[in-house]
C-alpha cells in the first residue's frame, strides 16, 4: 500500500485514497496464494479490517467572482511540522471492515443452454440456483433475443440484423421446484445459415448470454 496520502478539498478524498490502497493490497494477496507441498493453492490471505488514523491540517481559502460574494472553504493536507499556515488541525480515527457482497447471502447462478429440435426450432433450457447449489424455485427469469449484439456479431448493423420472424415463445419464465424452466426459439425460415443468435437470460442481479449458431 502506498505511504502517500493525496491532498484534497474534502475528507472524502483521503478516505477514498485509503480504501483504494486497501483494495490494491488485497488484490496483490489474491494473486499470491500460499502453496502446499504439492504445489497446489492451499490458502489466500484476507484482510478483515484496517484501522487508520489521519492527522490533517485545515487551511481556510476564499474565492469570489463577479456574480457571487466571497466564500470560505476548507482545504485539507497531511499534518507536517514544517507547515506554518494551517488554521487548525484534526485527528480522524476509524476502521475499514471487509463486508461480503449481498451481506453474505448466497449469490444466484443462472445456466442457459440450447438443444436443436428441428431446422427452425430450438429448445432453450434455463436452470437457476444459488452458490450453495440450492434451486431458486418460483423465481422469474426474463429471457430475450439480444438483437443488437446479434447484429454486431453477424456484422449486420447496416442491414437491420436478425429477421423479425425469429422470436421466442415466451418472454418470462418461472422456475419450477427444481429450478428449471424452458421455452422455444423459433427461427424464421428466411434466416440465413450460420447466423449467430444471442439469447440473454436475467435472474435477479445475474445475466447469462448464450450464442446460438443457426445451422
* Uncertain parts: 1-6
Largest sheet: 4 strands, antiparallel
Overall geometric form: elongated
Describe the strand arrangement of the main beta sheet, using strand numbers. Answer: 6-7-11-9
Strand content: 35-45%
Report how far the terminal alpha carbons are from each other: 53 Å
Structure in words:
This protein has helices at residues 11-30, 147-153, and strands at 34-35, 41-43, 49-63, 71-78, 88-97, 108-116, 121-130, 140-145, 167-168, 172-174, 180-186, 196-203, 206-213. The two termini are 53 Å apart. Strand 6 (108-116) and strand 7 (121-130) form a beta hairpin. The protein is mainly beta and 215 residues long. It has a four-stranded antiparallel sheet with strand order 6-7-11-9, with no helix packed on it. A four-stranded antiparallel sheet has the order 10-8-12-13, covered by helices on one side. It has a three-stranded antiparallel sheet with strand order 4-3-5. It is elongated and about 80 Å long.
Spell out the blueprint of helices and strands.
Elements: H1 11-30, E1 34-35, E2 41-43, E3 49-63, E4 71-78, E5 88-97, E6 108-116, E7 121-130, E8 140-145, H2 147-153, E9 167-168, E10 172-174, E11 180-186, E12 196-203, E13 206-213
Amino acid at each position: 500500500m502506498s505511504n502517500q496520502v493525496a491532498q484534497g478539498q474534502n475528507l472524502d478524498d483521503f478516505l477514498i485514497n485509503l480504501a483504494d490502497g486497501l483494495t490494491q493490497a488485497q488484490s496483490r494477496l489474491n494473486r499470491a496464494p500460499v502453496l502446499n507441498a504439492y504445489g497446489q493453492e492451499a490458502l489466500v490471505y484476507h484482510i478483515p479490517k484496517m484501522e487508520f488514523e489521519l492527522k490533517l491540517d485545515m487551511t481556510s481559502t476564499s474565492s469570489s467572482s463577479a456574480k457571487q460574494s466571497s466564500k470560505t472553504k476548507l482545504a485539507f493536507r497531511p499534518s507536517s511540522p514544517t507547515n506554518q499556515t494551517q488554521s487548525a488541525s484534526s485527528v480522524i480515527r476509524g476502521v475499514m471492515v471487509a463486508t461480503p457482497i449481498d451481506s453474505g447471502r448466497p449469490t444466484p447462478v443462472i445456466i442457459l443452454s440450447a438443444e436443436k429440435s428441428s431446422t427452425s426450432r430450438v429448445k432453450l433450457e434455463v436452470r437457476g440456483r444459488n452458490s450453495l447449489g440450492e434451486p431458486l424455485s418460483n423465481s422469474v427469469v426474463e429471457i430475450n433475443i439480444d438483437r443488437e449484439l446479434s447484429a454486431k456479431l453477424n456484422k449486420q448493423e447496416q442491414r437491420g440484423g436478425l429477421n423479425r420472424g425469429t422470436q421466442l415463445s415466451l418472454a418470462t419464465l418461472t422456475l419450477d421446484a427444481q429450478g428449471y424452466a424452458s421455452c422455444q426459439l423459433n427461427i424464421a425460415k428466411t434466416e440465413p445459415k450460420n447466423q449467430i443468435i444471442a439469447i440473454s437470460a436475467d435472474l435477479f442481479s445475474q445475466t447469462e448470454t448464450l450464442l446460438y449458431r443457426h445451422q
